[in-house]
TrEMBL record:
Gene3D superfamilies: P-loop containing nucleotide triphosphate hydrolases, Probable tRNA modification gtpase trme, domain 1, tRNA modification GTPase MnmE domain 2. (6S)-5-formyl-5,6,7,8-tetrahydrofolate binds at residues 24, 92, 131, 470. One of its GO terms (cellular component) is cytosol. K(+) binds at residues 237, 256, 258, 261. It is found in: Cytoplasm. Its main location: cytoplasm. It is an enzyme of class 3 (hydrolase). It comes from the Bacteria. This is tRNA modification GTPase MnmE. The lineage of its organism: Bacteria, Pseudomonadati, Bacteroidota. GO terms for molecular function: GTP binding; GTPase activity; metal ion binding. Residues 7-131 form the GTP-binding protein TrmE N-terminal domain. Keywords: Cytoplasm, GTP-binding, Hydrolase, Magnesium, Metal-binding, Nucleotide-binding, Potassium, tRNA processing. It comes from Candidatus [Bacteroides] periocalifornicus.
Length: 470
């Protein structure tokens, strides 16, 4: 039997210490293997009904046990194809989470004809059996790894077909006109026109606009799915490590009065207003001859290029604070959003601090300028307010479809390219054959999102990122 047609088995729960563990079987022999494990007599239990069964372990190879020795008492639920997660016969065996018991049940299942599942193979089978489309299957993996409410909601939206329905609607509208264009090709000698060119032009324009709208949400979706990357930069001893520790609520970075203490990037995560922020403390920016510190500074600049938000720290008590702030903003001038934090604000009189903030706000083009003090916690509310506003801008509205997956974004971008060529061809009088070619390409790119067509070469890349038991 082909490996893909065999029954598979895996531990569906984590490897951490717990009270119970679940072993999952899927495939044509799933129920038969349960019969052997539990030595069932007569008919199988009613599907979707929890049944207490004894699992026998005396068939384990190389182990001397008493005849009819009970390995564990388990709760077993059987699911009959096609009404199961994978679309196949499925058995879920809930055991006591002893590593020995779990390992023994896996070994016995393999001895009775199953093989160990590959990463994501249960969900891959669900896709291949039409239980999920490809985007929904990716939503399963996102849901498993969700750590925030926003990630959970986006994953659930994907799993419930939010993006799939949007994409299928676009494809269906194009398929109708594609069919008419193909008819024209069949009757090319008769010079007939089934697909109205004005209608096709209008449709392609509206679909291109929608593809661009969806693609434009990816930067927000990526921040929701992976976290908002925030890089903390500044001169040595500006308070970068202190700020990181404060935001994380733990002593993650070493803090000393010695300039250049932080030489490599130190990272940590926390959630503000429902959005995951990924903070990175970096080496202080200054001229130095120390080769190790130079490497750290180079890494700081690389991290700054990839950041979505730069928190630029300047010691407010320094006589050169204004000049340093302007110079740092010039060095860090890029696509990242930036905010200036005037640290050690407790050392500066309120009037002088207010004047400095006003001057810098004008010189930095309206970028946020916030005071902050690790000693008095002054400015903490303003900083958290800034992070909250950023989160509010990124988090989606109710029912809004946001693209969180790079593969989906690329498919939409490729659709946009083909639609642009289709529109250009319609306006320049391109032949039926080339119009049909571009139209088919758009349909193919959109179909790749849901797995309708052209996905064989990417299935492995998608499902290898799943856990074994899913």
């Amino acid at each position: 039997m082909d490996s893909r047609g065999r029954t598979i088995v895996a531990l569906a729960t984590g490897l951490t210490q717990a009270a119970v563990a679940m072993v999952r079987l899927s495939g044509p022999e799933a129920w038969a293997i349960v019969r052997k494990l539990a030595r069932l007599q007569g008919s199988y239990p009613t599907p979707r009904t929890a049944t207490l069964m004894r699992i026998y372990g005396d068939a384990l190879s190389g182990i001397q046990t008493l005849k009819n020795a009970v390995l564990d008492e388990a709760i077993v639920i059987l699911y009959q194809a096609p009404a199961s997660y994978t679309g196949e016969d499925v058995a879920e065996i809930t055991l006591h989470a002893s590593p020995y018991i779990v390992r023994s049940v896996l070994e016995l299942s393999i001895a009775y004809g199953a093989r160990m599942a590959e990463p994501g193979e249960f969900t891959e089978r669900a896709f291949l059996n039409g239980k999920l489309d490809l985007a929904e299957a990716e939503g399963v993996n996102d849901l498993i790894h969700a750590r925030t409410r926003a990630q959970q909601q986006q994953a659930m939206g994907l799993l419930q077909g939010g993006l799939s329905k949007e994409v299928e609607s676009l494809r269906d509208r194009l398929l109708h006109l594609a069919t008419l264009l193909e008819l024209e090709l069949d009757f090319s000698e008769e010079d007939v026109e089934f697909a109205n060119r004005a209608e096709l032009l209008e449709l392609a324009t509206s679909i291109q606009a929608r593809c661009r709208e969806l693609a434009a949400t990816f930067s927000r979706g990526e921040a929701i799915r992976s976290g908002m990357p925030v890089v903390i930069v500044g001169r040595p001893n500006a308070g970068k490590s202190t700020l990181l520790n404060h935001l994380l609520g733990e002593e993650r970075a070493i803090v000393t009065a010695i300039p250049g203490t932080t030489r490599d990037t130190i990272e940590g995560e926390c959630v503000f207003s429902g959005l995951l922020f990924r903070f990175a403390d970096t080496a202080g920016l200054r001229d130095t001859e120390d080769p190790v510190e130079k490497i750290g500074i180079a890494r700081t600049l690389e991290h700054a290029k990839r950041a979505k938000l730069l928190l630029v720290l300047v010691d407010a008590s320094s006589p050169e604070a204004e000049r340093i702030a302007v110079e740092l903003f010039q060095v860090l001038d890029g696509n990242s959003r930036r905010a200036l934090l005037l640290t050690k604000a407790d050392r500066v009189p309120d009037s002088a601090l207010g004047e400095l903030r006003n001057r810098l706000a004008g010189q930095l083009g309206g970028e946020p300028v916030l005071p902050w003090s690790a000693v008095s916690q002054g400015g903490d509310a303003e900083l958290r307010g800034l992070l909250g506003r950023i989160a509010a801008e990124i988090l989606p509205e109710a029912e809004e479809v946001v693209v969180t997956n790079l593969r989906h974004y690329q498919a939409l971008a490729e659709s946009d390219v083909e639609l642009a060529q289709l529109l250009e061809g319609l306006q320049s009088g391109l032949t039926q054959e080339l119009l049909a070619f571009h139209l088919r390409r758009v349909i193919a790119h959109l179909g790749a999102i849901t797995g309708e067509i052209g996905v064989e070469d990417i299935l492995g890349n998608i499902f290898q990122n799943f856990c074994i038991g899913k």
